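Suppose you are handed a protein chain with no further information: no name, no annotation, nothing but its sequence. What can you learn? This example shows the usual starting point.
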Amino acid sequence: MSATSEANEIPTPTCVGYDPSMYPYKPEKLPELYSACGRQDAAEVARLLAQPDIDVNEKSPGGEWTAFMAACYRRNSACIRLLLADARVKLSEPDNIGRLPLEQLMFNDDVTNIKWWIASGREMDLKSNRITGAKMKHDKMTQTVIAPLLDRFEADPDQVRREVRAEFGYTE
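A reasonable first move is to predict its three-dimensional structure. Written in structure tokens, the prediction is:
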């Protein structure tokens, strides 16, 4: 589904609906953390996050995405979990069209990574009009799993967090 020509280059999608304007930049211009998330290189993400001076919220040239958004787009649980664990990462940083990382996960029907986010204990902006709109997306996964999960989480975050953490084997 993707092709890579350089080690530091984000894989370029070759699927239907691919928009070449999403990847117009040379690899050496991409922020390191963003590039590592795009390549789904969790070991490199961990190495970069260990650097105290790295800008974990640096956007790609043109202001499209942060590393967290790139990880959400790629549905990479390992990178997402590493980024969720770093308090410096802004989780509600919108892209250049206003889309939020949670919204990206919802559009990807990525229930597992939404649950990891809930389990992490990090903030989740459920009041955004964009999230409200995404919950109304008319597909089975959103209507039967994601929207009800987020509605329950909004009503009782502690209870849902306990349930998800138990599902993932956390011990309190």
